[in-house]
Amino acid sequence: MSETLQPAPAPASTVFSVVPTAAESAAHFAPRVEFDVDVSDVHAALDAGETGFVVVDSRSRAAWDQGHVPGAIHLPTREIAARAADELPAGTPVVVYCWSPGCNGGIRAALELALAGHPVKEVRGGFEYWVREGFEYETGDGQRHRFEPDPRVNVHPDGLTGAACFGPAPEAALGEPIACAC
């Protein structure tokens, strides 16, 4: 007589008060991988000269002028329905970002762009993490800037004890952050 092995029950925990199956977990996370992209991956693709997508900044003019990803198109969320057809060729794949993971402006912009006929991915972490990773950005006057990576996000080879190498945290160096107003 053969016995079917059963996984051990999850221990009682507030974290796992509901325990999804592996299949349910895969069904949940697969779309997130398909529709989200990390700032490091976007930077690497742009740095390699990949041309198969357009980067869209969906924040306000004030936030755009404060700093944005080099080469991005400024298309505020509220203007996408009216301007997307004029700004982006039909069907162009788009990578969209807003301010940060605490803002849902990128999600709303991604939806608007998808409704306008574009395949879309949202940049996980938004512009906040672009700067925190230490990637170059440009301001409204076209000047390029770069801060050293934030040690709380991007660990220096010397470890967190090497924080003195990084200078001020990006938010301190940028001054008061401008709300994305999306």
Automatic annotation (TrEMBL):
Identify the SMART domains for this entry: RHOD
Which branch of life, at top level? Bacteria
**Which Gene3D superfamilies is this protein grouped with?**
Rhodanese-like domain
Task: Tell me the ranges covered by the Rhodanese domain, including all copies.
Answer: 49-139
InterPro entries according to UniProt:
GlpE_sulfurtransferase (IPR050229), Rhodanese-like_dom (IPR001763), Rhodanese-like_dom_sf (IPR036873)
Q: Which Pfam families match?
A: Rhodanese
Among PANTHER family, the record links this protein to: FAD-DEPENDENT OXIDOREDUCTASE, PYRIDINE NUCLEOTIDE-DISULPHIDE OXIDOREDUCTASE
Q: Please give the name of this protein.
A: Rhodanese-like domain-containing protein
Taxonomic lineage per UniProt?
A: Bacteria, Bacillati, Actinomycetota, Actinomycetes, Micrococcales
